[in-house]
Amino acid sequence: LFPFGYGQSYTTYNYSDIKLSDTVIDRKGHLEAMVNVTNTGSIAGEEVVQLYIRDDVSSVTRPVLELKDFARVHLEPGETKQVPFTITPEKLRFYNKDMKRVVEPGRFHVYIGPDSQHLKSTTFMVKGKR
After folding, report:
1. DSSP 20-50
2. What is the pTM of this model?
3. Are 33 and 112 a contacting pair, CB within 8 Å?
4. Burial level of 111, CB count in 10 A (0-12/13-18/19+)?
5. 113 burial class (0-12, 13-18, 19+ CB within 10 angstroms)?
6. pLDDT of 34-66, one tens digit each?
């Protein structure tokens, strides 16, 4: 009935497009994903900003979306805050067919939003050999 992470609030929020600190990293690298969240309502509120990641191409079947991080942000009416997330190798790892935790090279989607359906997205690449 409701998307994952759905919550009601007495105010409204607007999310800007996601900015990444880099668009290509190696398997041991990390990057920052940032989004600006604005309270567009008339009263103060708390918003839970959610970060999801999708591995577009992998050697085994992967979930369409995985919640990897979240941040609770207090915003006064009209206030905008930049919400940063660090994407580390740990957030990209999964068990391959040999049951080893790996980060495979390829394209990843980053999604940030208030729930699992209302998301802003961008992509980055992890370089390396398979």
Report:
1. ES-SEEETT--EEEEEEEEE-SSS-EEEEEE
2. 0.92
3. yes
4. buried
5. buried
6. 999 999 999 999 999 999 999 999 999 999 999
Residues 6+ apart with CB under 8 A from 56: 106, 107, 108, 109, 123
Q: Which two tokens stand for residue 47?
A: 């918003």
* DSSP-derived secondary structure for 81-126: EEEEEEE-HHHH-EE-TTS-EE---EEEEEEEESSSSS-EEEEEEE
- 95-117 pLDDT, tens digit each: 999 999 999 999 999 999 999 99
In the chain, count H helices and then E strands: 1, 11
